Amino acid sequence: MNALPDHIHFSLEVFPPKTEKGVQKLMETVSAYTAFDPSIITVTFGAGGAEDALLYHRDVVRRIAHATHLPVAAHITCANRSCAEVDAAIDGFWEDGVRYIVALRGDILTPDGLYHPHPEGYFMVPDFVAAVKKRYPAMQVFVAGYPEGHPESPTEDFDFVHLQRKIDAGADGVLTQFFFDPDIFLRWRDKLEARGMRTLLVPGLLPILNFQKTCALAQKCRAQVPSFLAQMFDGVDPDGLDHKLLAMNVLSHQITRLIENGVSHFHFYTMNDTLLTRHLCVWLRAAY
Ligand code: FAD
Known about the structure:
Layout: E1 9-14, H1 20-34, E2 40-43, H2 51-68, E3 72-77, H3 83-95, E4 100-104, H4 125-135, E5 140-145, H5 156-168, E6 173-178, H6 182-194, E7 200-205, H7 211-221, H8 227-233, H9 241-260, E8 265-269, H10 275-287
Parallel strand pairs: 1-2, 1-8, 2-3, 3-4, 4-5, 5-6, 6-7, 7-8
The structure holds flavin-adenine dinucleotide.
């Protein structure tokens, strides 16, 4: 077993709510997070990419950066948008002082469910990453990784090759899709290491706020839900205290196993929740 890491780093992912009232609530949420000194707050972006969505996203990123003085990472998707549009979004964030982005393709919105690059857009994420790094070498760029494979991936090998391309293009680290069994991440990390892939791998962990909804999301994202979780949450009221305690137990078990195996960076999909995230941060800060 590896020695415990010296220090634990974690990023917290939030999504921009659709209303101003929701944004105000989000600002209260993120100000509650600041006490725990997260390394970065990351802000997701809806793949639709309409002009008002872009402005709204930029505004939320700005407001969080201003209110927290923490580094903020803007998620930026390149599907359905021209290179000029994506580049303009990056320019805007750079002007605002944002020095971290999560560079993504984004989910497919076409009726046939297949990915068609925008005719004037980046063909794939590696091209997008390379372009950002060329224009702004100091921009820290994270990309997505999939310990259980991406739903569109034809083979595991294809996924590894694709991830390698993103790293070769200049990505500074990989934030993973969520998973529940920590050994899935550890085996994936071993496979990447065996292939000589060296980069910062940050496991993504999703607090189980509502087990049924989590299962539906996991199915969409190709994340296995171990059967013991179904047994644990069977008949448990998602709004009750038992559900929250069980969810906290699951998270602390996952994190302990990962830390015991040398992991020191974590990415939490907070779903804009405060309760579990706050308890998790209190526990992490006190325990490590
Ligand atoms: P890519 O890295 O380009 O591809 C993902 C996978 O698709 C590859 O691993 C590969 O297996 C397969 N693939 C790629 N090219 C091909 C090809 N030519 N043929 C066959 N298969 C191929 N979505 C949003 O809309 N907004 C967000 O803010 C957002 N944040 C995310 C944050 C994280 C940490 C993660 C893990 C995902 C996030 N997503 C977000 C979801 C992401 O956009 C989707 O998973 C999307 O389907 C793929 O994006 P990607 O950047 O991983 O794409």
